[in-house]
Design a protein that fits this description.
Largest interface: A-B, 65 and 65 residues
CATH architecture of the largest domain in chain A: Alpha-Beta Complex
Distance between the termini of chain A: 9 Å
Radius of gyration of chain A: 19 Å
Strand content of chain A: 15-25%
Shape of chain A: globular
Number of strands of chain A: 12
CATH topology of the largest domain in chain A: Phosphoribosyl-aminoimidazole Synthetase, Chain A, domain 2
Helix content of chain A: 25-40%
Number of domains of chain A: 2
Strand order of the largest sheet of chain A: 7-9-6-10-8-11-12
CATH class of the largest domain in chain A: Alpha Beta
Oligomer: homodimer
Order of helices and strands of chain A: HEEHEHEEEHHHEHEHHEHEEE
Chain lengths: 314, 314
């Protein structure tokens, strides 16, 4: 049993599971977007690897990132917590502090939620946002020839996760970069809204399960395939991979939790969009490849397997 | 540590935890409402007491009920599931079947969600609804003298829960009534919208934690107290309590999960609202007491303690 099999089983009961967030229309001139995530201790996070403040931040960041991928501005969140018996009020405050600080960064309000006892600490967040109808981006708008780009270099969060388990012979500043990317990721909500406002941005999603997995989802959503031409690797990921004798690009391709956005942009507009992006954010919009009509994702001439995280496999 | 202590700890980080659902304004003429619930196996439900189809139905019903209590029409839901390793696809289909049937009853769409591994089966639902600004009801609108009423008799769900643990010498049809109330509760969303449309309905909430607990919350929300004059007891609850030698009214006062609505209605309008209610729903709107200026809830001349369910006590 894997995640796809479960999604197939529940699809008949649902409407449109498949994008980062779902959309509805509260009035003619508005679209709202909603996204939910559940995180379970020792499945989705461990306290060995990060503080509860970090757990809260990352949980909220993951939801904000899902809305960013639709071009939506996050407005509010609900938080349901499952708390083991031994949880202290100080621990709850620490966790909530992380949730609230990440929410404040995106100017969204935590408006309610629920509390239950649980065996393992469980955090279920729902974020709602607003988006102009003309700015909505899904995973389906791309077509062959569109340029694929990401909002930042990849792999640092994976390096950070692995550094919480084993040290590596890399510089201290790179360790800091990697741990920060893993524990305190910056969702790309401003970048998402900026890109969503361009008619030449055809499709968008976030890269939370690793570029190889998420790119194959984006390409499938667009009814086509993709070729990866180059992988922008974060300095800490490159150093970590090389210290272990691994290929840095393949390390970054398989690394999840980066929360960068993947966008498909009309080829004639790519240079212009990338130039405006760098002026606005002082960071580069990084070309990673192109959409193509043949199905599947290829890299260096061979098909790229999905290497990302699946809760239900193995 | 109890639930109130935890809520106090997280209140500084949040906006307006306290009503059944939170509200926001996607455009000038609209209000949206949102509510989240988390249910954990062996805490909030057990498979001994009900099927997974029932678990799904009740989980969705609890969320619909929260929106009903604000006068909102449910529009969509997200469902995040934490699944233990041994969960089969058939079990997931059964659970989702219950979720989807209850959602269909209220014409709401399940639009997305999340899947994670978990130690115990965990269901986190968020429901979003819409409500006309003029129809919004909170827990705060009542004032001394308002008549308190409930949308149906109470206690059947508690009798049903207890009947899953021990049999009682009551009629078979009463057993069926009680088990149905517990396993397959009917959220009062149509009743909630009907009552919300009346300017004479001053405050509303659902009665999911037992009338004694929820009435003290409603009265506190209105900045006043309440007197319980009479408790409408469901036939199965009366028979069950009497078979055990207990006072039926006090049994029903302490029984949670009934999902009836509690409303505060301007005294001069109560008869009129109740008459229109019975014509519309062919059931009675049942008077239970009045709001009064002195704090606390009294019944038969003595203060009524909170007897409802608290996850975090004991």
């Amino acid at each position: 049993m894997n995640e796809e099999a479960i999604l197939d089983a529940i699809r008949p009961f649902t409407v449109g599971i498949g994008d980062d967030a779902a959309l509805w229309q509260p009035s003619r001139s508005h679209r709202s977007a909603i996204s939910s995530d559940m995180l379970v201790e020792d499945v989705d996070f461990t306290r060995n690897a990060m503080s509860l403040e970090d757990v809260g931040w990352r949980s909220m960041a993951a939801n904000v990132s899902d809305l960013a991928a639709m071009g939506a501005r996050p407005v509010l969140a609900t938080v349901a917590l499952g708390l083991p018996k031994e949880t202290s009020l100080d621990e709850i405050r620490e966790l909530y502090g992380g949730l609230a600080r990440c929410a404040a960064r995106s100017k969204l309000a935590i408006v309610g939620g629920d509390l239950s006892r649980a065996v393992a600490l469980t955090i279920a967040i729902t974020v709602v946002g607003e988006v102009r109808p003309s700015n909505v981006k899904t995973r389906a708008g791309g077509r062959p020839g569109d340029v694929l780009a990401v909002t930042g270099p990849l792999g640092a969060a994976r390096a950070g996760l692995e550094l919480t388990r084993q040290s590596a012979a890399i510089g201290d500043d790179l360790v800091v970069e990697a741990l920060r990317a893993f524990r305190h990721p910056q969702p790309r909500d401003r970048e998402g809204r900026f890109l969503a406002a361009s008619a030449n941005v055809a499709a968008m999603m976030d890269c939370s399960d690793g570029l190889s997995t998420d790119l194959s989802r984006l390409a499938a959503g667009c009814g086509c395939g993709a070729e990866v031409e180059s992988v922008p690797v974060a300095p800490s990921a490159r150093a970590f991979a090389e210290a272990r004798g691994e290929d840095a690009a393949r390390f970054a391709l398989a690394g999840g939790e980066d929360f960068e956005l993947i966008v498909a942009i009309r080829p004639r507009a790519f240079r212009h969009v990338a130039m405006r992006y760098v002026r606005r954010f002082n960071r580069e919009l990084l070309r990673v490849g192109v959409l193509r009509s043949a199905r599947g994702v290829i890299y260096e001439g061979t098909p790229l397997g999905r290497a990302g995280w699946d809760h239900f496999e193995g």
